[in-house]
Amino acid sequence: MLVQSKVSSPGRYLIRSGTAYLFQIRIPTALAQNRRIPPFRIGLGPISKRAAQQRADQLAVLARQAFAHAQARMMQIDGQMLGGITPLFQGDSLDEVLAEMRGFIRAAALLLDEPEPLPGPRRVADLAALKGVVTLERELRKDSAAAPLIADNADMLRARYHHDLGGVPASLPRSAPLAVPAQPVSTKPLFSQVADEYIAMRIGSDGADHKDIKYLGLRKRVFLEIVGDKPVDTYKQSDLQKFVNELQFWPANVTKRTDLGEMSVQEILEKNQDRHLQPLSRKTAEDGYVQNIRTMFRHGCTEHDYRYPFSDVKIRWPLGYRPSIPREGLSDQIKGEAFGSALPPDSSTRPCCRSSAT
Predict the structure, then answer these.
(1) Could you give the angle at the alpha carbon of 272 between the alpha carbons of 267 and 278, nearest 5°?
(2) Tens digit of each residue's pLDDT (9 = 90 or more) over 9-19
(3) What is the distance between the alpha carbons of residues 231 and 288, in angstroms, rounded to a whole number?
(4) What top-level branch of life does the organism fall under (predicted)?
(5) Which of 28, 93, 23, 37 minimizes the C-alpha distance to 64?
(6) What distance in Å separates the CA atoms of residue 34 and residue 293, rounded to the nearest whole number?
(7) Which is nearest to 291 in space by CA: 198, 177, 203, 357?
(8) How do residues 125-164 score in pLDDT, each as one tens digit?
(9) CA-CA distance, 206 to 214, in Å (whole number)?
């Protein structure tokens, strides 16, 4: 008698995509306010099943606490009694509160890669560093409307908060801080300005209705939301690699998908961590998205006098991209059937050029 092999479940709060695990938890109905909000997901990477289950259990504890703070904030907005809890989040709408909540859980996920133990749930709400991460991510979601002081120092702030979250052992010797030479402040324009100048140039030469214009605007926005907006001479190889790594989760034909609605780039990437929406092909990513971004950077080199930051960059392409379908040329038989009998081998006259005289 044949015995069917039983496929083991990834475990509670887990889904599996290939060799990688993803943490998944549903937004409570009371918090979603009758809206259809997709489950929150975080990629855990190609780790063992046991490690994935441990991380998922820890993240679930923090997620439930985040849900409680989000619910308290929504009650506060509606003028209801809070029941003794001070909301960690300060958004003025459900979308803003959910964005802060996602930043909170993602910041907590960073702790799982640290050697220090994960803080207990009671302590997490009081960590100023987590509040800093939440505030930072909420501000950066405003794109061009973000406060310049925060946007210009986003990387430094993230590093500081990450350091605070990881914790510094108290046994470290208290020595005088080493003098670190001040990093020169860049005087070059932000990438968003250089990209807008390139798009404006293309509109002037090709017209606003040219098919490439809408794609250029989309690809610029995707790059900015994944990598961030910085002076053009401060980007590094790792920035382009990060763009390529995240782009493997970007759905193909995204402008034609009505189901994605008004979702942000990050929300779409989170939604498609399991690639249930067909991802881009590598050819589209390489020849379209990445090549457009490279061209935008090159366009401003002469005008703004900076060195192209991605010279000699070798990109490592993830395996998550959809392979391109090779196009085969038409065989001689098909050509003959389509255009009539082939000419004799010694004839140099094309059929369309033959004289009608007999």
Answers:
(1) 130
(2) 666 788 876 66
(3) 23
(4) Bacteria
(5) 28
(6) 39
(7) 198
(8) 445 566 666 666 666 666 666 666 666 667 776 666 655 5
(9) 12
Q: What is the separation of C-alpha 79 from the centre of its chain, rounded to a whole number of angstroms?
A: 35
Q: Are strands 20-25 and 40-45 parallel, antiparallel or unpaired?
A: antiparallel
For 179, what's the count of Cα atoms within 13 Å in the CB-facing half-sphere? 1
Token pair 């958004």 is found at: 91
| Cβ atoms 322, 252 nearer than 8 A | yes
b/e map 156-190, b = 16+ CB within 10 Å: ebbeebeeebeeeeeeeeeeeeeeeeeeeeeebbb
DSSP 193-247: HHHHHHHHHHHHHH-TT-HHHHHHHHHHHHHHHHH---BGGG--HHHHHHHHHHH
Residue 272 DSSP symbol: T
Q: Which amino acid is at 92?
A: D
Residue 235: how many other CB atoms lie within 10 Å: 19
Nearest CA to 105 out of 68, 143, 146, 77 is that of 68
- Tokens standing for residue 62: 């923090």
Phi first, then psi: what are they for 337, rounded to 5°? -65, -35
- For residues 22 and 49, is the Cβ–Cβ distance under 8 A? no
